[in-house]
Amino acid sequence: MVATVLARSMALGAPDSLPGLVHLIGIVVTAAAVGSPAAAPVLSRLQNTANKIHSRMRSLGLNETELSERCSAAAIHLFEDGEVPGLTRDRLSKILMNRQRVPARSAARVITHTELAVLAQVLQVSSDWLLGQEQNRDPVVWNVLANPDRAVEFANLFQAYEELGKENRVWSQSPMYSFGSEAFAHAFNHAHYGRQPGIPNTRPLVEFYNKMARIRRKWLLRPDRSFKYTNLINQSHFENVTCGKGIFSGISITILIRNLDVLIDLITNPLLKMELVILDDENTFTLEALRNYQFVAAVDNLFSVWGYHNADVGWSEHPSYAKPHRELLDRMMEHRLYRGVSETVDYLKSLRNFLRRGRK
User: Fold this and answer.
1) Whether the predicted pLDDT of 180 surpasses 50
2) Element (H, E) at 315
């Protein structure tokens, strides 16, 4: 009985299955003695959620009392017509007891759907992430237009794994936001996301990515972070965007030149740990493997996230996504055109000279 319920609980991972999942977790732990092999996977998931809550508390500078106060205020607005979850300091303490290798008997054995929703809002993350997706083979997919306010959640998703990993490696069809100037990021978003076919009102989409650009630049452009940030991009994609070709022709020469100046400064600053890798266009393996995506990123083998051409984003903690995506990105490094920072800088300077001559 326990094994059957556990199998069902692990198969549920989509947002609309959250109530069922938390109740099933409660059933399993009640049915099995704490510490028994049958209860171990559920306790592991509770431990994972407790660790994520604690990590976000640390990032936001919150103690248990402060988190409880914020949860009380948020719960009133989230559940105006329903039962408000009581996330008191004592309740939070019992949830966080699950961080211990062997939780105390008084530790919480279930986290309800309403508690999870309140915690996710206060901690500025998604309930999908708090719940944990390590056992879920189905990726989480977010429709950005359906919820354009998710920029903070999306940025925090990246940050949570970057704090744990050694390197975030990203392939993209345009330079990632931290590899250039803020003015260029805004101009790019307007030109690219402001012209999505089949979307009559693209303003929320542009605002989402403008906010993402601000958050990511602030997080990444600091000399005290421990992880390396590597952006791989095919040469034709890079030149189309940074030299203002095609739909980007409306970006002013001044912004384009300044953007290359900023990019050169960034990759030559060793404290920032940023690497730009320009890939050979004749590497058809790269183009074919990634033709359905705008970007694919992997933080070590811990986490993978990708963007579709319709602007939706998907992510997964499951090894079946994180590991092969990272291996793909690692293989792509073998097809770089320029070895070392100096060669890359010479290439960027040649593009800057091209722009100064008037893109002729």
Assistant:
1) yes
2) strand 313-316
